[in-house]
From TrEMBL:
The keyword Transport applies. This is Phosphonate C-P lyase system protein PhnL. GO terms for cellular component: plasma membrane. Gene3D superfamilies: P-loop containing nucleotide triphosphate hydrolases (3.40.50.300). It is found in: Cell membrane. GO terms for molecular function: ATP binding; ATP hydrolysis activity; lyase activity. It comes from Formimonas warabiya. Belongs to the ABC transporter superfamily. Its main location: membrane.
């Protein structure tokens, strides 16, 4: 099976200058994922889980190591060294990121936000409108919210919209940073249904979770992060 992502000896540190403090956030992290695999990651808050994702998405630039991604457009590319133009393209077309927080353009409705994600893929407006409506309905966002501004949404509604915007693009690689944190049980299982569908379609995923029941029988690989180090494990634990 085709390897999509290979992280090799990744390290990331931060310096807090006003406190004269150095923090090693990631230490020699390595993993590899094949097409359609789902890596579930657990660990205490502050252990470095989200930093791994931000290095892959290049919100953070790592100090050491390689992040080798097999792109449809660029072929094998090291995300740790990729240029800004390549990263902008990959974020639009191949790599999705779902965080707990929704960052949306002001005066952009929920329907427009999701539709724009589809338009970025080069699809026509009619298709984008249809896909936006389908996924908003799947996550049971009330139709009277579709043409409202997300700033007025509850935390759970914002999170569902954030997930919808990322998943509607069916990315090649999808990073899920605690995507079910503020969702009720029914909404969590709607997220799971789409994750399972994307896996069947070949999307490769990494997810950070505290809800171990959600991960059960879903993840093909399981890891825990402790003090910036990544360990593959068969027994999931947040400790």
């Amino acid at each position: 099976m085709e390897e999509i992502l290979s992280i090799e000896h990744l390290s990331k540190s931060f310096t807090i200058h006003n406190l004269d403090k150095h923090i090693d956030a990631l230490r020699d992290v390595s993993l590899s994922l094949k097409k359609g695999e789902f890596a579930g990651i657990t660990g205490k808050s502050g252990s470095g889980k989200s930093t791994i994702f931000k290095c892959i998405y290049r919100t953070y630039a790592p100090q050491k190591g390689a992040i080798r991604y097999h792109s449809l457009k660029f072929g094998p590319i090291d995300l740790a060294e990729a240029g800004e133009r390549e990263m902008i393209y990959l974020r639009k077309h191949e790599i999705g990121y779902v965080s707990q927080f929704l960052n949306a353009m002001p005066r952009t409705t929920a329907r427009e936000l999701v539709g724009q994600a589809v338009l970025e893929m080069g699809c026509d407006r009619d298709y984008a409108e249809k896909e936006a409506q389908t996924i908003l309905a799947h996550f049971e966002l009330a139709p009277d919210l579709w043409d409202s501004y997300p700033a007025t949404f509850s935390g759970g509604e914002k999170l569902r919209l954030n997930i919808a915007r990322a998943m509607v693009k069916r990315p090649r690689l999808l990073l899920l940073d605690e995507p079910t944190a503020s969702l009720d049980v029914a909404a969590k299982w709607r997220v799971r249904a789409l994750i399972e569908q994307l896996m069947r379609e070949g999307t490769t995923m990494m997810g950070i979770f505290h809800d171990l029941a959600f991960m059960e029988n879903l993840c093909t690989r399981k890891y825990t992060v402790q003090d910036g180090r990544l360990w593959e494990t068969s027994a999931l634990s947040i400790c």
